[in-house]
Write a structure and sequence with these properties.
By secondary structure, the chain is mostly helical. The chain is built from 28 helices and no strands. Helix 2 crosses helix 4 and helix 18 runs antiparallel to helix 19.
Length: 618
Protein backbone atom coordinates (compact mmCIF):
# COMPACT_ATOMS: atom_id res chain seq x y z
CA UNK A 1 0.00 0.00 0.00
CA UNK A 2 2.85 2.36 0.88
CA UNK A 3 4.41 1.71 -2.50
CA UNK A 4 1.12 2.55 -4.31
CA UNK A 5 0.82 5.87 -2.41
CA UNK A 6 4.45 6.66 -3.27
CA UNK A 7 3.84 6.10 -6.98
CA UNK A 8 0.63 8.10 -6.81
CA UNK A 9 2.35 11.13 -5.28
CA UNK A 10 5.17 10.86 -7.79
CA UNK A 11 2.82 10.83 -10.79
CA UNK A 12 0.56 13.60 -9.50
CA UNK A 13 3.66 15.74 -9.05
CA UNK A 14 4.89 14.79 -12.55
CA UNK A 15 1.58 15.78 -14.16
CA UNK A 16 1.44 19.06 -12.23
CA UNK A 17 5.07 19.81 -13.21
CA UNK A 18 4.47 19.20 -16.93
CA UNK A 19 1.34 21.39 -16.81
CA UNK A 20 3.14 24.25 -15.06
CA UNK A 21 6.21 24.31 -17.34
CA UNK A 22 3.87 24.12 -20.31
CA UNK A 23 2.05 27.19 -19.08
CA UNK A 24 5.43 28.94 -18.62
CA UNK A 25 6.35 28.17 -22.23
CA UNK A 26 9.20 25.83 -21.30
CA UNK A 27 7.61 22.97 -23.26
CA UNK A 28 8.02 23.68 -26.95
CA UNK A 29 7.01 20.34 -28.49
CA UNK A 30 5.00 17.22 -27.79
CA UNK A 31 8.22 15.22 -28.08
CA UNK A 32 9.47 16.86 -24.90
CA UNK A 33 6.37 15.69 -23.05
CA UNK A 34 6.82 12.17 -24.45
CA UNK A 35 10.47 12.01 -23.36
CA UNK A 36 9.54 13.11 -19.84
CA UNK A 37 6.99 10.31 -19.66
CA UNK A 38 9.54 7.79 -20.93
CA UNK A 39 12.01 8.92 -18.28
CA UNK A 40 9.66 9.17 -15.31
CA UNK A 41 6.95 6.50 -15.77
CA UNK A 42 8.08 3.04 -14.75
CA UNK A 43 6.86 -0.17 -16.39
CA UNK A 44 4.14 -1.88 -14.46
CA UNK A 45 2.75 1.35 -12.97
CA UNK A 46 0.68 2.52 -15.94
CA UNK A 47 -2.58 1.90 -14.07
CA UNK A 48 -1.47 4.22 -11.27
CA UNK A 49 -0.52 6.92 -13.78
CA UNK A 50 -3.95 6.56 -15.45
CA UNK A 51 -5.71 7.09 -12.11
CA UNK A 52 -3.59 10.14 -11.35
CA UNK A 53 -4.25 11.61 -14.77
CA UNK A 54 -8.01 11.03 -14.48
CA UNK A 55 -7.95 12.72 -11.06
CA UNK A 56 -6.25 15.84 -12.45
CA UNK A 57 -8.45 15.86 -15.56
CA UNK A 58 -11.58 15.84 -13.42
CA UNK A 59 -10.19 18.62 -11.18
CA UNK A 60 -9.30 20.94 -14.09
CA UNK A 61 -12.56 20.20 -15.91
CA UNK A 62 -14.53 21.14 -12.80
CA UNK A 63 -12.55 24.38 -12.59
CA UNK A 64 -13.42 25.23 -16.19
CA UNK A 65 -17.09 24.37 -15.65
CA UNK A 66 -17.52 26.25 -12.35
CA UNK A 67 -15.06 29.17 -12.47
CA UNK A 68 -16.77 32.54 -12.97
CA UNK A 69 -13.67 34.73 -13.01
CA UNK A 70 -12.56 35.04 -16.66
CA UNK A 71 -8.82 35.13 -15.94
CA UNK A 72 -8.98 32.10 -13.68
CA UNK A 73 -11.19 30.29 -16.18
CA UNK A 74 -8.72 31.05 -18.98
CA UNK A 75 -5.87 29.65 -16.87
CA UNK A 76 -7.95 26.53 -16.13
CA UNK A 77 -8.55 26.11 -19.86
CA UNK A 78 -4.81 26.33 -20.57
CA UNK A 79 -4.17 23.70 -17.92
CA UNK A 80 -6.83 21.52 -19.50
CA UNK A 81 -5.17 21.88 -22.92
CA UNK A 82 -1.82 20.98 -21.37
CA UNK A 83 -3.44 17.88 -19.92
CA UNK A 84 -4.78 16.97 -23.37
CA UNK A 85 -1.22 17.14 -24.69
CA UNK A 86 -0.06 14.85 -21.89
CA UNK A 87 -2.95 12.50 -22.67
CA UNK A 88 -1.99 12.26 -26.34
CA UNK A 89 1.65 11.52 -25.57
CA UNK A 90 0.65 9.06 -22.87
CA UNK A 91 -1.38 7.09 -25.44
CA UNK A 92 1.67 7.07 -27.69
CA UNK A 93 3.88 5.84 -24.83
CA UNK A 94 1.28 3.25 -23.87
CA UNK A 95 0.99 1.86 -27.39
CA UNK A 96 4.76 1.61 -27.94
CA UNK A 97 5.34 0.06 -24.53
CA UNK A 98 2.25 -2.12 -24.32
CA UNK A 99 4.13 -5.39 -24.48
CA UNK A 100 6.64 -4.42 -21.81
CA UNK A 101 3.77 -3.16 -19.69
CA UNK A 102 1.99 -6.50 -20.05
CA UNK A 103 5.14 -8.39 -19.11
CA UNK A 104 5.77 -6.14 -16.12
CA UNK A 105 2.15 -6.44 -15.05
CA UNK A 106 2.33 -10.23 -15.31
CA UNK A 107 5.49 -10.28 -13.22
CA UNK A 108 3.79 -8.13 -10.59
CA UNK A 109 0.73 -10.39 -10.54
CA UNK A 110 2.97 -13.42 -10.05
CA UNK A 111 4.80 -11.69 -7.19
CA UNK A 112 1.58 -10.58 -5.51
CA UNK A 113 -0.18 -13.94 -5.89
CA UNK A 114 -0.46 -16.37 -3.02
CA UNK A 115 2.29 -18.98 -3.21
CA UNK A 116 -0.28 -21.65 -4.11
CA UNK A 117 -1.51 -19.55 -7.07
CA UNK A 118 1.78 -18.34 -8.53
CA UNK A 119 2.17 -21.16 -11.04
CA UNK A 120 -1.39 -20.75 -12.31
CA UNK A 121 -0.79 -17.00 -12.58
CA UNK A 122 2.28 -17.65 -14.71
CA UNK A 123 0.28 -19.95 -17.01
CA UNK A 124 -2.33 -17.20 -17.37
CA UNK A 125 0.43 -14.84 -18.48
CA UNK A 126 1.48 -17.14 -21.34
CA UNK A 127 -2.11 -18.09 -22.28
CA UNK A 128 -2.32 -18.01 -26.11
CA UNK A 129 -6.02 -17.01 -25.89
CA UNK A 130 -5.24 -13.46 -24.78
CA UNK A 131 -6.18 -10.63 -27.12
CA UNK A 132 -2.49 -9.95 -27.62
CA UNK A 133 -0.74 -13.20 -26.66
CA UNK A 134 2.95 -13.05 -25.91
CA UNK A 135 5.29 -14.21 -28.65
CA UNK A 136 8.10 -16.60 -27.82
CA UNK A 137 10.55 -13.68 -27.77
CA UNK A 138 8.30 -11.84 -25.36
CA UNK A 139 7.99 -14.94 -23.17
CA UNK A 140 11.80 -14.96 -23.13
CA UNK A 141 11.70 -11.36 -21.86
CA UNK A 142 9.22 -12.45 -19.21
CA UNK A 143 11.79 -14.98 -18.01
CA UNK A 144 14.45 -12.26 -17.88
CA UNK A 145 12.19 -10.01 -15.79
CA UNK A 146 11.40 -12.86 -13.41
CA UNK A 147 15.09 -13.59 -13.06
CA UNK A 148 15.80 -9.92 -12.27
CA UNK A 149 12.99 -9.70 -9.74
CA UNK A 150 14.28 -12.64 -7.71
CA UNK A 151 17.26 -10.48 -6.71
CA UNK A 152 14.95 -7.83 -5.28
CA UNK A 153 12.98 -9.91 -2.81
CA UNK A 154 13.78 -11.01 0.73
CA UNK A 155 11.10 -13.73 0.57
CA UNK A 156 13.05 -16.97 0.06
CA UNK A 157 9.97 -18.90 -1.14
CA UNK A 158 9.13 -16.22 -3.70
CA UNK A 159 12.76 -16.07 -4.80
CA UNK A 160 12.75 -19.82 -5.38
CA UNK A 161 9.50 -19.65 -7.41
CA UNK A 162 10.78 -16.83 -9.62
CA UNK A 163 13.98 -18.77 -10.25
CA UNK A 164 11.98 -21.93 -11.04
CA UNK A 165 9.69 -20.09 -13.46
CA UNK A 166 12.56 -18.39 -15.30
CA UNK A 167 14.48 -21.68 -15.56
CA UNK A 168 11.40 -23.53 -16.81
CA UNK A 169 10.69 -20.94 -19.49
CA UNK A 170 14.28 -20.95 -20.72
CA UNK A 171 14.47 -24.76 -20.83
CA UNK A 172 11.09 -24.98 -22.56
CA UNK A 173 12.12 -22.53 -25.27
CA UNK A 174 15.45 -24.33 -25.75
CA UNK A 175 13.62 -27.68 -26.08
CA UNK A 176 11.25 -26.20 -28.65
CA UNK A 177 14.20 -25.07 -30.76
CA UNK A 178 15.37 -28.68 -30.87
CA UNK A 179 11.85 -30.05 -31.49
CA UNK A 180 10.73 -27.62 -34.19
CA UNK A 181 12.47 -29.41 -37.11
CA UNK A 182 10.70 -32.62 -36.07
CA UNK A 183 7.23 -31.14 -35.65
CA UNK A 184 5.69 -32.93 -38.64
CA UNK A 185 8.58 -34.99 -40.03
CA UNK A 186 7.06 -38.14 -38.48
CA UNK A 187 3.99 -37.75 -40.70
CA UNK A 188 6.09 -38.49 -43.77
CA UNK A 189 7.37 -41.72 -42.29
CA UNK A 190 4.88 -44.26 -43.61
CA UNK A 191 5.56 -46.59 -40.68
CA UNK A 192 3.89 -44.10 -38.35
CA UNK A 193 0.18 -43.56 -37.95
CA UNK A 194 -2.29 -41.72 -35.78
CA UNK A 195 -1.55 -38.79 -33.58
CA UNK A 196 -3.21 -40.18 -30.48
CA UNK A 197 -2.51 -42.98 -28.07
CA UNK A 198 -2.81 -45.90 -30.50
CA UNK A 199 -0.01 -48.16 -31.69
CA UNK A 200 3.50 -49.05 -30.57
CA UNK A 201 6.62 -46.85 -30.38
CA UNK A 202 8.09 -48.52 -33.43
CA UNK A 203 4.97 -48.04 -35.52
CA UNK A 204 2.94 -45.00 -34.66
CA UNK A 205 2.89 -41.41 -33.61
CA UNK A 206 5.50 -38.73 -32.98
CA UNK A 207 6.05 -39.32 -29.28
CA UNK A 208 9.18 -41.46 -29.37
CA UNK A 209 10.78 -39.19 -31.96
CA UNK A 210 10.01 -36.12 -29.85
CA UNK A 211 11.26 -37.83 -26.68
CA UNK A 212 14.70 -38.15 -28.25
CA UNK A 213 14.88 -34.39 -28.93
CA UNK A 214 13.81 -32.76 -25.65
CA UNK A 215 16.98 -33.53 -23.66
CA UNK A 216 15.07 -33.31 -20.36
CA UNK A 217 13.91 -36.19 -18.19
CA UNK A 218 10.33 -35.12 -17.37
CA UNK A 219 9.02 -34.40 -20.90
CA UNK A 220 11.06 -37.33 -22.24
CA UNK A 221 9.45 -39.65 -19.69
CA UNK A 222 5.97 -38.34 -20.49
CA UNK A 223 6.39 -38.76 -24.25
CA UNK A 224 7.65 -42.33 -23.83
CA UNK A 225 4.74 -43.07 -21.48
CA UNK A 226 2.26 -41.92 -24.13
CA UNK A 227 4.03 -43.86 -26.88
CA UNK A 228 3.97 -47.08 -24.85
CA UNK A 229 0.27 -46.60 -23.97
CA UNK A 230 1.11 -46.57 -20.28
CA UNK A 231 -0.84 -44.57 -17.71
CA UNK A 232 -0.07 -40.85 -17.68
CA UNK A 233 -1.81 -40.64 -14.31
CA UNK A 234 0.52 -43.23 -12.83
CA UNK A 235 3.54 -41.57 -14.44
CA UNK A 236 2.62 -38.20 -12.94
CA UNK A 237 1.86 -39.64 -9.51
CA UNK A 238 5.37 -41.08 -9.32
CA UNK A 239 7.21 -38.15 -10.90
CA UNK A 240 9.47 -36.14 -8.62
CA UNK A 241 9.35 -32.70 -10.20
CA UNK A 242 9.56 -29.01 -9.39
CA UNK A 243 7.65 -26.08 -10.84
CA UNK A 244 10.38 -25.52 -13.45
CA UNK A 245 9.70 -28.96 -14.95
CA UNK A 246 5.98 -28.23 -15.39
CA UNK A 247 6.67 -24.78 -16.87
CA UNK A 248 9.14 -26.34 -19.30
CA UNK A 249 6.58 -28.97 -20.32
CA UNK A 250 3.83 -26.35 -20.69
CA UNK A 251 5.85 -24.39 -23.24
CA UNK A 252 6.92 -27.53 -25.11
CA UNK A 253 3.36 -28.85 -25.42
CA UNK A 254 1.93 -25.43 -26.22
CA UNK A 255 4.39 -25.00 -29.09
CA UNK A 256 3.82 -28.53 -30.37
CA UNK A 257 0.05 -28.22 -30.23
CA UNK A 258 -0.11 -24.81 -31.88
CA UNK A 259 2.41 -25.86 -34.51
CA UNK A 260 0.49 -29.02 -35.40
CA UNK A 261 -2.87 -27.24 -35.57
CA UNK A 262 -1.44 -24.50 -37.78
CA UNK A 263 0.09 -27.12 -40.07
CA UNK A 264 -3.05 -29.28 -40.25
CA UNK A 265 -5.25 -26.22 -40.84
CA UNK A 266 -3.18 -25.43 -43.94
CA UNK A 267 -3.90 -28.77 -45.64
CA UNK A 268 -5.64 -27.02 -48.51
CA UNK A 269 -5.63 -30.16 -50.66
CA UNK A 270 -7.91 -31.87 -48.13
CA UNK A 271 -9.42 -29.45 -45.64
CA UNK A 272 -11.63 -32.14 -44.10
CA UNK A 273 -8.67 -34.34 -43.28
CA UNK A 274 -6.85 -31.33 -41.87
CA UNK A 275 -9.82 -30.43 -39.68
CA UNK A 276 -10.06 -34.00 -38.40
CA UNK A 277 -6.37 -34.01 -37.47
CA UNK A 278 -6.66 -30.59 -35.80
CA UNK A 279 -9.59 -31.84 -33.74
CA UNK A 280 -7.59 -34.87 -32.63
CA UNK A 281 -4.66 -32.60 -31.74
CA UNK A 282 -6.75 -30.32 -29.53
CA UNK A 283 -8.37 -33.22 -27.72
CA UNK A 284 -5.15 -35.21 -27.35
CA UNK A 285 -3.24 -32.36 -25.74
CA UNK A 286 -6.16 -31.36 -23.50
CA UNK A 287 -6.46 -34.95 -22.30
CA UNK A 288 -2.73 -35.15 -21.54
CA UNK A 289 -3.05 -32.13 -19.24
CA UNK A 290 -6.17 -33.50 -17.56
CA UNK A 291 -4.48 -36.82 -16.91
CA UNK A 292 -1.40 -35.07 -15.53
CA UNK A 293 -3.71 -33.12 -13.23
CA UNK A 294 -5.19 -36.33 -11.90
CA UNK A 295 -1.75 -37.79 -11.39
CA UNK A 296 -0.74 -34.75 -9.33
CA UNK A 297 -3.78 -34.92 -7.03
CA UNK A 298 -1.56 -35.08 -3.96
CA UNK A 299 -0.01 -31.76 -5.07
CA UNK A 300 -2.89 -29.26 -5.54
CA UNK A 301 -0.62 -26.53 -6.90
CA UNK A 302 0.39 -28.71 -9.84
CA UNK A 303 -3.13 -30.08 -10.33
CA UNK A 304 -4.70 -26.63 -10.57
CA UNK A 305 -2.03 -25.48 -13.02
CA UNK A 306 -2.57 -28.50 -15.26
CA UNK A 307 -6.32 -27.90 -15.36
CA UNK A 308 -5.63 -24.25 -16.16
CA UNK A 309 -3.68 -25.28 -19.26
CA UNK A 310 -6.43 -27.74 -20.24
CA UNK A 311 -8.98 -24.92 -20.06
CA UNK A 312 -6.81 -22.77 -22.30
CA UNK A 313 -6.81 -25.54 -24.90
CA UNK A 314 -10.59 -25.92 -24.60
CA UNK A 315 -11.14 -22.21 -25.13
CA UNK A 316 -8.99 -22.17 -28.24
CA UNK A 317 -10.66 -25.36 -29.53
CA UNK A 318 -14.22 -24.10 -29.00
CA UNK A 319 -13.62 -21.08 -31.23
CA UNK A 320 -12.61 -23.13 -34.28
CA UNK A 321 -15.16 -23.40 -37.08
CA UNK A 322 -14.63 -27.17 -37.20
CA UNK A 323 -15.40 -27.66 -33.51
CA UNK A 324 -17.40 -30.93 -33.59
CA UNK A 325 -20.87 -30.00 -32.36
CA UNK A 326 -22.11 -33.34 -33.67
CA UNK A 327 -19.35 -35.63 -32.36
CA UNK A 328 -17.06 -37.90 -34.31
CA UNK A 329 -13.86 -36.88 -32.56
CA UNK A 330 -12.44 -39.97 -30.94
CA UNK A 331 -10.70 -41.63 -33.88
CA UNK A 332 -7.30 -41.23 -32.21
CA UNK A 333 -8.34 -42.80 -28.91
CA UNK A 334 -9.12 -46.32 -27.87
CA UNK A 335 -10.61 -48.26 -25.00
CA UNK A 336 -9.58 -47.24 -21.52
CA UNK A 337 -7.88 -44.02 -22.67
CA UNK A 338 -11.12 -42.71 -24.15
CA UNK A 339 -13.23 -43.61 -21.13
CA UNK A 340 -10.72 -42.04 -18.75
CA UNK A 341 -10.50 -38.94 -20.93
CA UNK A 342 -14.22 -38.31 -20.62
CA UNK A 343 -14.00 -38.25 -16.82
CA UNK A 344 -10.89 -36.08 -16.82
CA UNK A 345 -12.25 -33.59 -19.32
CA UNK A 346 -15.32 -33.00 -17.18
CA UNK A 347 -13.43 -31.87 -14.07
CA UNK A 348 -12.05 -28.45 -15.15
CA UNK A 349 -15.42 -27.39 -16.56
CA UNK A 350 -16.84 -27.26 -13.06
CA UNK A 351 -14.92 -24.02 -12.43
CA UNK A 352 -15.84 -22.25 -15.69
CA UNK A 353 -18.79 -19.87 -15.72
CA UNK A 354 -21.44 -19.77 -18.43
CA UNK A 355 -19.42 -19.09 -21.54
CA UNK A 356 -19.75 -20.09 -25.17
CA UNK A 357 -16.65 -22.24 -24.73
CA UNK A 358 -18.21 -24.18 -21.88
CA UNK A 359 -21.44 -24.78 -23.80
CA UNK A 360 -19.56 -26.23 -26.75
CA UNK A 361 -17.33 -28.46 -24.66
CA UNK A 362 -20.31 -29.72 -22.68
CA UNK A 363 -21.91 -30.59 -26.03
CA UNK A 364 -18.89 -32.67 -26.95
CA UNK A 365 -18.89 -34.43 -23.58
CA UNK A 366 -22.61 -35.10 -23.71
CA UNK A 367 -22.30 -36.79 -27.10
CA UNK A 368 -19.41 -38.86 -25.79
CA UNK A 369 -21.35 -39.92 -22.70
CA UNK A 370 -24.19 -41.11 -24.91
CA UNK A 371 -21.82 -43.38 -26.84
CA UNK A 372 -20.86 -44.94 -23.51
CA UNK A 373 -24.50 -45.59 -22.67
CA UNK A 374 -24.40 -42.98 -19.88
CA UNK A 375 -27.70 -41.47 -21.00
CA UNK A 376 -28.61 -39.64 -17.78
CA UNK A 377 -25.20 -37.98 -17.67
CA UNK A 378 -25.47 -37.16 -21.38
CA UNK A 379 -28.84 -35.49 -20.73
CA UNK A 380 -27.30 -33.46 -17.92
CA UNK A 381 -24.44 -32.26 -20.13
CA UNK A 382 -26.71 -31.35 -23.04
CA UNK A 383 -29.25 -29.52 -20.88
CA UNK A 384 -26.48 -27.45 -19.30
CA UNK A 385 -25.02 -26.74 -22.73
CA UNK A 386 -28.45 -25.80 -24.10
CA UNK A 387 -29.06 -23.32 -21.30
CA UNK A 388 -25.65 -21.68 -21.69
CA UNK A 389 -25.97 -21.60 -25.50
CA UNK A 390 -29.30 -19.79 -25.16
CA UNK A 391 -27.78 -17.28 -22.72
CA UNK A 392 -24.80 -16.61 -25.00
CA UNK A 393 -26.96 -16.66 -28.16
CA UNK A 394 -24.88 -19.40 -29.76
CA UNK A 395 -27.67 -20.60 -32.05
CA UNK A 396 -25.67 -23.36 -33.76
CA UNK A 397 -24.73 -24.82 -30.38
CA UNK A 398 -28.33 -24.52 -29.18
CA UNK A 399 -29.63 -26.46 -32.19
CA UNK A 400 -26.93 -29.10 -31.80
CA UNK A 401 -27.95 -29.75 -28.21
CA UNK A 402 -31.62 -29.99 -29.10
CA UNK A 403 -30.60 -32.63 -31.63
CA UNK A 404 -28.44 -34.49 -29.11
CA UNK A 405 -31.22 -34.38 -26.53
CA UNK A 406 -33.56 -35.89 -29.09
CA UNK A 407 -31.15 -38.74 -29.80
CA UNK A 408 -30.54 -39.36 -26.11
CA UNK A 409 -34.29 -39.48 -25.46
CA UNK A 410 -34.58 -42.20 -28.12
CA UNK A 411 -31.91 -44.18 -26.31
CA UNK A 412 -33.98 -43.77 -23.12
CA UNK A 413 -37.15 -44.80 -25.00
CA UNK A 414 -38.81 -41.43 -24.33
CA UNK A 415 -39.96 -41.02 -27.91
CA UNK A 416 -42.50 -38.21 -27.44
CA UNK A 417 -39.82 -36.02 -25.82
CA UNK A 418 -37.39 -37.02 -28.57
CA UNK A 419 -39.89 -35.82 -31.18
CA UNK A 420 -40.37 -32.56 -29.25
CA UNK A 421 -36.63 -31.80 -29.18
CA UNK A 422 -36.14 -32.69 -32.86
CA UNK A 423 -39.10 -30.54 -33.94
CA UNK A 424 -37.65 -27.56 -32.07
CA UNK A 425 -34.24 -28.19 -33.65
CA UNK A 426 -35.84 -28.39 -37.10
CA UNK A 427 -37.74 -25.14 -36.62
CA UNK A 428 -34.76 -23.17 -35.27
CA UNK A 429 -32.33 -24.55 -37.85
CA UNK A 430 -34.59 -23.48 -40.71
CA UNK A 431 -35.03 -20.05 -39.15
CA UNK A 432 -31.29 -19.31 -39.10
CA UNK A 433 -30.23 -21.40 -42.13
CA UNK A 434 -28.25 -24.02 -40.19
CA UNK A 435 -28.25 -26.77 -42.82
CA UNK A 436 -26.21 -29.23 -40.77
CA UNK A 437 -28.57 -28.74 -37.85
CA UNK A 438 -31.55 -29.20 -40.17
CA UNK A 439 -30.17 -32.46 -41.61
CA UNK A 440 -29.63 -33.84 -38.10
CA UNK A 441 -33.06 -32.65 -36.96
CA UNK A 442 -34.77 -34.38 -39.91
CA UNK A 443 -32.90 -37.58 -39.15
CA UNK A 444 -33.80 -37.40 -35.46
CA UNK A 445 -37.44 -36.59 -36.13
CA UNK A 446 -37.90 -39.49 -38.52
CA UNK A 447 -35.92 -41.82 -36.27
CA UNK A 448 -38.01 -40.86 -33.21
CA UNK A 449 -41.33 -41.26 -35.03
CA UNK A 450 -40.44 -44.76 -36.27
CA UNK A 451 -39.63 -45.90 -32.73
CA UNK A 452 -42.70 -44.23 -31.23
CA UNK A 453 -44.99 -45.86 -33.79
CA UNK A 454 -43.39 -49.23 -33.11
CA UNK A 455 -43.71 -48.78 -29.33
CA UNK A 456 -47.39 -47.88 -29.67
CA UNK A 457 -47.92 -50.75 -32.12
CA UNK A 458 -49.24 -48.43 -34.79
CA UNK A 459 -49.65 -50.28 -38.06
CA UNK A 460 -50.74 -47.40 -40.31
CA UNK A 461 -48.43 -47.29 -43.33
CA UNK A 462 -48.78 -43.51 -43.60
CA UNK A 463 -47.12 -42.95 -40.20
CA UNK A 464 -44.01 -44.89 -41.23
CA UNK A 465 -43.96 -43.31 -44.68
CA UNK A 466 -43.89 -39.82 -43.14
CA UNK A 467 -41.08 -40.83 -40.79
CA UNK A 468 -39.06 -42.40 -43.59
CA UNK A 469 -39.64 -39.25 -45.65
CA UNK A 470 -38.05 -37.12 -42.91
CA UNK A 471 -35.07 -39.46 -42.85
CA UNK A 472 -34.64 -39.34 -46.61
CA UNK A 473 -34.88 -35.52 -46.61
CA UNK A 474 -32.13 -35.41 -44.01
CA UNK A 475 -29.97 -37.80 -46.05
CA UNK A 476 -30.40 -35.75 -49.22
CA UNK A 477 -29.54 -32.53 -47.38
CA UNK A 478 -26.44 -34.05 -45.76
CA UNK A 479 -25.28 -35.39 -49.15
CA UNK A 480 -25.67 -31.92 -50.65
CA UNK A 481 -23.64 -30.49 -47.77
CA UNK A 482 -20.92 -33.11 -48.18
CA UNK A 483 -21.06 -33.58 -44.42
CA UNK A 484 -19.91 -37.12 -43.64
CA UNK A 485 -21.00 -37.00 -39.99
CA UNK A 486 -24.61 -36.01 -40.76
CA UNK A 487 -24.68 -38.33 -43.75
CA UNK A 488 -23.58 -41.25 -41.59
CA UNK A 489 -26.27 -40.45 -39.01
CA UNK A 490 -28.99 -40.27 -41.67
CA UNK A 491 -27.84 -43.50 -43.36
CA UNK A 492 -27.72 -45.39 -40.08
CA UNK A 493 -31.07 -43.96 -38.96
CA UNK A 494 -32.70 -45.15 -42.16
CA UNK A 495 -31.06 -48.55 -41.87
CA UNK A 496 -32.14 -48.99 -38.25
CA UNK A 497 -35.65 -47.77 -39.10
CA UNK A 498 -36.02 -50.43 -41.80
CA UNK A 499 -34.73 -53.05 -39.36
CA UNK A 500 -37.41 -51.95 -36.89
CA UNK A 501 -39.94 -52.34 -39.72
CA UNK A 502 -38.50 -55.84 -40.35
CA UNK A 503 -37.28 -54.98 -43.84
CA UNK A 504 -33.64 -56.18 -43.74
CA UNK A 505 -33.20 -56.00 -47.54
CA UNK A 506 -33.97 -52.25 -47.51
CA UNK A 507 -31.91 -51.79 -44.37
CA UNK A 508 -28.75 -53.28 -45.91
CA UNK A 509 -28.28 -50.54 -48.49
CA UNK A 510 -28.47 -47.75 -45.92
CA UNK A 511 -26.39 -49.51 -43.26
CA UNK A 512 -23.54 -50.17 -45.70
CA UNK A 513 -23.66 -46.51 -46.73
CA UNK A 514 -23.74 -45.49 -43.08
CA UNK A 515 -20.66 -47.53 -42.29
CA UNK A 516 -18.75 -46.06 -45.23
CA UNK A 517 -19.75 -42.50 -44.29
CA UNK A 518 -18.79 -43.10 -40.64
CA UNK A 519 -15.38 -44.40 -41.72
CA UNK A 520 -14.83 -41.21 -43.68
CA UNK A 521 -15.92 -38.95 -40.81
CA UNK A 522 -13.90 -40.97 -38.27
CA UNK A 523 -16.85 -41.57 -35.92
CA UNK A 524 -16.08 -44.90 -34.25
CA UNK A 525 -19.46 -45.08 -32.53
CA UNK A 526 -21.46 -44.77 -35.73
CA UNK A 527 -19.09 -47.23 -37.44
CA UNK A 528 -19.73 -49.79 -34.73
CA UNK A 529 -23.47 -49.13 -34.63
CA UNK A 530 -23.90 -49.55 -38.38
CA UNK A 531 -21.88 -52.77 -38.34
CA UNK A 532 -23.92 -54.11 -35.40
CA UNK A 533 -27.19 -53.59 -37.27
CA UNK A 534 -25.61 -54.90 -40.48
CA UNK A 535 -24.89 -58.13 -38.64
CA UNK A 536 -28.55 -58.38 -37.66
CA UNK A 537 -29.69 -57.65 -41.21
CA UNK A 538 -27.36 -60.29 -42.71
CA UNK A 539 -28.44 -62.77 -40.05
CA UNK A 540 -32.10 -62.14 -40.90
CA UNK A 541 -31.27 -62.86 -44.55
CA UNK A 542 -29.19 -65.94 -43.54
CA UNK A 543 -26.01 -64.50 -45.04
CA UNK A 544 -24.04 -65.84 -42.09
CA UNK A 545 -20.57 -65.15 -43.45
CA UNK A 546 -21.27 -61.43 -43.78
CA UNK A 547 -23.11 -61.45 -40.46
CA UNK A 548 -19.97 -62.76 -38.73
CA UNK A 549 -17.74 -60.25 -40.51
CA UNK A 550 -19.92 -57.24 -39.64
CA UNK A 551 -20.78 -58.47 -36.15
CA UNK A 552 -17.23 -59.19 -35.01
CA UNK A 553 -15.96 -55.91 -36.39
CA UNK A 554 -18.83 -53.87 -34.92
CA UNK A 555 -18.58 -55.67 -31.57
CA UNK A 556 -14.87 -54.87 -31.34
CA UNK A 557 -15.24 -51.18 -32.24
CA UNK A 558 -18.10 -50.63 -29.81
CA UNK A 559 -16.32 -52.40 -26.97
CA UNK A 560 -13.16 -50.37 -27.58
CA UNK A 561 -14.97 -47.09 -26.97
CA UNK A 562 -16.98 -48.55 -24.08
CA UNK A 563 -20.37 -48.42 -25.86
CA UNK A 564 -22.91 -50.80 -24.31
CA UNK A 565 -24.21 -51.95 -27.69
CA UNK A 566 -21.22 -54.29 -28.05
CA UNK A 567 -22.91 -56.78 -25.74
CA UNK A 568 -25.98 -57.16 -27.95
CA UNK A 569 -23.79 -57.88 -30.97
CA UNK A 570 -21.58 -60.22 -28.96
CA UNK A 571 -24.74 -62.11 -27.99
CA UNK A 572 -25.60 -62.62 -31.66
CA UNK A 573 -22.06 -63.79 -32.42
CA UNK A 574 -22.20 -66.32 -29.55
CA UNK A 575 -25.48 -67.65 -30.95
CA UNK A 576 -23.90 -68.02 -34.39
CA UNK A 577 -20.85 -69.72 -32.94
CA UNK A 578 -23.11 -72.18 -31.15
CA UNK A 579 -24.99 -72.90 -34.38
CA UNK A 580 -21.94 -73.18 -36.65
CA UNK A 581 -19.35 -74.73 -34.33
CA UNK A 582 -15.89 -74.83 -35.95
CA UNK A 583 -17.29 -73.31 -39.14
CA UNK A 584 -17.55 -70.01 -37.24
CA UNK A 585 -13.77 -69.90 -36.80
CA UNK A 586 -13.24 -70.90 -40.43
CA UNK A 587 -15.42 -68.03 -41.62
CA UNK A 588 -13.59 -65.62 -39.29
CA UNK A 589 -10.29 -66.84 -40.74
CA UNK A 590 -11.47 -66.25 -44.30
CA UNK A 591 -12.51 -62.72 -43.37
CA UNK A 592 -9.16 -61.97 -41.72
CA UNK A 593 -7.79 -60.03 -44.72
CA UNK A 594 -10.87 -57.76 -44.69
CA UNK A 595 -10.78 -57.22 -40.92
CA UNK A 596 -7.07 -56.39 -40.55
CA UNK A 597 -7.18 -53.05 -42.46
CA UNK A 598 -9.84 -51.83 -40.03
CA UNK A 599 -8.64 -53.00 -36.60
CA UNK A 600 -5.21 -54.55 -37.18
CA UNK A 601 -3.73 -57.85 -36.02
CA UNK A 602 -4.18 -57.07 -32.32
CA UNK A 603 -7.85 -56.27 -32.87
CA UNK A 604 -8.41 -59.45 -34.86
CA UNK A 605 -6.70 -61.58 -32.20
CA UNK A 606 -8.85 -59.96 -29.51
CA UNK A 607 -12.17 -61.03 -31.08
CA UNK A 608 -12.22 -64.57 -29.57
CA UNK A 609 -11.24 -63.12 -26.18
CA UNK A 610 -14.12 -60.66 -26.43
CA UNK A 611 -16.62 -63.46 -27.02
CA UNK A 612 -15.27 -65.28 -23.97
CA UNK A 613 -15.49 -62.05 -21.96
CA UNK A 614 -19.17 -61.71 -22.92
CA UNK A 615 -20.00 -65.29 -22.00
CA UNK A 616 -18.25 -65.00 -18.64
CA UNK A 617 -20.24 -61.87 -17.83
CA UNK A 618 -23.60 -63.64 -18.22
Amino acid sequence: MTESISWQERYLNLIDHIVEITLKGQIRSKEQVYQMLVKEVSSGTGEIFERCFDERLQTFQNQVDTETDELKQAKANRRLRALKTIQGEWKRWEKLNQTQEAIASSVQEIINAESSDRLTTLFNAIDPNQKQPLTLNQIQKLAQNLDEQKLQTADSELEKDLQQFATGINKGLEAWQRLQPYLVSWIYDQSRGQLGFGGTPEQRGPWVLWAKQVNSSFPEGLFNTIALEKSIVEFASKASIEASNLVELALILQCLQRGLVEWFDKLIYDAKVGAKLSISTFLTFATIWCQLANGFQARPRLTNSCFQVALQIFRAFSQQEYFPLYGGIFASFSGEYLQNALSYLDAPLQIVKGTQAKARILTLLGYSQQTLGENLRAMEFHKQALEIAQETEDKFCEIANLNHLSRTCVAMQDYSEAINYSQRALMFSRQIGDKKGEANALANLGFSEVFQARQQEMMETEIYENAINYLQQGLKLSENLGDGQSKSLCFSSLGIAFMVLEKPEDALLYLVGGWQAAQYSGDLYLQGLNLAYLAQAYYSLQNLEQAIFAGCLGMYLLEQIGANEWRQTAGLMVVLKGQLGEDFNDILGRKRSEILPVIGVDGYDYIPELLVKYQQSL
